[in-house]
Design goal:
six-stranded mixed β-sheet, 3 domains, SH3 type barrels, alpha/beta, Ribonucleotide Reductase Protein R1, domain 1, Rossmann fold, five-stranded antiparallel β-sheet, globular, 314 residues
Amino acid sequence: MGEPEGLEGRVARVDARQLEVVVGEETLALPMLGRVFDNKGEDKVPVAVGDRVLLRKRDGELGVEAVLERRNVFARRAAGQDSRRQLLAANVDRVVVVASFGNPPFSSITVDRILVACSFGGIESAVVLNKTDLAKGDECARISSTYLRAGFKVIPTSATREEGIGALTELLKDCESVLYGLSGVGKSSLLNLIQPGLGLKTREVSEALNSGRHTTAFARRWPLDCGGAVIDTPGVRVFRPWGVPPSELRLHFPEMARLGRECRYPACLHRKEPACAVEAAREEGEFPESRYRSYLEVLAELEEVYGGTAPTEI
């Protein structure tokens, strides 16, 4: 490829200060030029997989000069005490939250946190329940029901038995999707079945940590034969939503948002306020306790980071 200027490309991988960018049918390893990296603002790293970027030459070197306008961002709060935004993907149609049974066990709080981040980013989401062959009793049906009633698409899968792969492939077809979840839930195994020949490495789950090792070391966008592309991401151990105003968290739990219209106070936080429709639904067993526990935990965390919430009475 010659030495063009003013090219547009799409980021396929982010690794420190170097990016892999797809331009036409070629993938180029390019640096981030000074202006991009120096103007990070609220972001830990200013470029995400899926970003559309502008390439130009500086001092004879082709690099990424600017990130073009995004239609959405999937992000979380950076690890540790860092309160900055960590970009996970950009310009996507859907985030597929992958959870599992067995080891690591299903974690409602992790799934719910990721779903909140998707809602806040204006991104459609779906839930994949992998390792169904390790589910106990009615565990899979019960958890599926919780998320189906909330309005999410749920796909049970078993990479070991190759079950649910057709439904997951259909979900990813002709879309820009992200697979995201805890370490060890089987994202790479599922992708290897969806895209034969991809050959992503998989590892056993750590018994001591009760979580998977980080098989995928960095986010990477893979084109799919069925159309579209999927961004495979490193597994996480903790997910913290970024930027969600505490007083708006209730709006990112769809079933809670629907019930909240019946509360006495428009700004009801569903935390022991009088005439709370969510509390009434809980008492009648119509609102799942797992989702309510997730809500309270995330609400307390957001209040600590971003300050208190609006009062229930005005």
